[in-house]
Write the structure tokens for this entry.
Amino acid sequence: MPAPDILLQVMEAMPVMVGLFDTHRRHVYANPAYRAFMGSGLADLSGRTIAEVLGDDHFRLTQTMADRALRGEVVQTEGWMPHPNGGQHYVIRLHAPHRRPDGSVAGYFVLLYDITERRKTQDDLFRLAYYDPVTGLANRLLLLKHMGDYQAVGEPFTLVTVDIDRFVEIRTSLGQAFANELLIDLANRLGRDGGPVDLLARVSDHAFALLIAGDCDPPAVERKIERVAAVVRAARSSSGAAVFLSASIGVATWCEAHERAEDVLRDAEIATGRVREQGGARHAWFDPAMHARVVEQVRLEHDLRRAMERGDELWVAYQPIIDMVTGGLAGFEALVRWSHPERGAIPPGVFIPIAESTGLIVRLGEWVLREACRQVADWQEKRVPGSAPLFMSVNLSTRQLREPDFADRVRAVLRETAVEPSWIKLELTESAVMEKAEQSIRLLETLRGLGIKLSIDDFGTGYSSLSYLHKLPIDSLKVDRSFVSAMHQSEENRAIVRIIVDLARLLGFDVIAEGIETTADANLLRALACDYGQGYHFAKPLPAREAESLVEGNLPWRQEL
């Protein structure tokens, strides 16, 4: 069989579309795959140009390739082309010259390979990789890609991150579907009403980012932030239901000190986090001190985890609680301390918030409770004969109260240490109790059922409601040190302490005043009939060995009575 006949049979059988054109760009031949795609027979195609079949728009796209093929070049491209029946197909195009035996160009071949399905799959994968499935916005990866492109060409940019305050609580209480509706509405509003930006992205579960190219114009950015904050406040679900939203907003600008694009996003999120720590609903511009603070917190978190594993750096100090009438020792408050091997004493005001934010406070709090229970059980054997049993106050955190098995953990510690439950007094802040009042009441009733006592710490600084206060199964109110220190400044300040004492009496609670610094503080609190007191006037928090001396009856403050 002659070679041309074989080649013709091959082309007739090929799934690749093959068309032959003359020098005037008119169809000369088309294989079955080509004819099926065009929806025309060979007789209909012959003598017609591609423009006559698919329209002038596609002709303009392929004209250059045809010109190059007629000059003897082989050209390959890929892209979308119209289908005669409508729609677009993605194809690989190859234009190659058709030569006569003498080598002159008699026309050109067009080979078309339809890869529409492959392209759709690639597009789907791209969308999955670079777009948020809920809002349809660019995601974190695409934002970083855009910022990296700007950085590569030296184009300055500003990044604004918008973190929705209380979003987790909204989702928990109203459901994921409602939360998604809010996110979609917010994304639409930011795109429509937030003003022009170079890219709008969703960068985390409840945070968006606005990328603004060009030199930073702080007044313009401030105006945009105000506009964005208003958009957040206006968000609604698709059903029209509204919640009162606010946002913590952080701003960072690219500079040459940033090695990577993600460093700018990190800085903006650090600024956002700082705003969130301060209560949210405002904005902050990043400054390097914020980054240094975060690095320090991460380092301290690592060291704290190590200290908890090793167990030789953390210890419990005990501050005595005094019977204000007799001057006798009534009990102690257990306070955790950290002696860092390199940095020395780390203040509780530094490491306790880190423990709270990381969840380490749950383990740490349980450890303190266990140590305090063992210690008070031991001291009961050593107290002055005839004196009342000592009690031990232990602080609880909000995170501990959220643990579903917290009451079981307390029960296990009581059993392990063989302590009398009535010797233990757990202290909770009123804000922690009132955050979920009904749930807290049930937990407190369970704890009270174990036989332990309960106290509201820092009373007067939170937002407790009298309608709930009388329902709380507690034994004590603890007057915050801020009220104690202000008693001598005015009659109004003294009246606040008097009201707290009277309220406690009415509800059947005893009263503990903390932060007693002077003899005058102590005398005034006695005059107000405060039951118990603690503070540096009596003693600072002491190591167990020094506190034991007080248990044995060596009470230096009694000399003043």
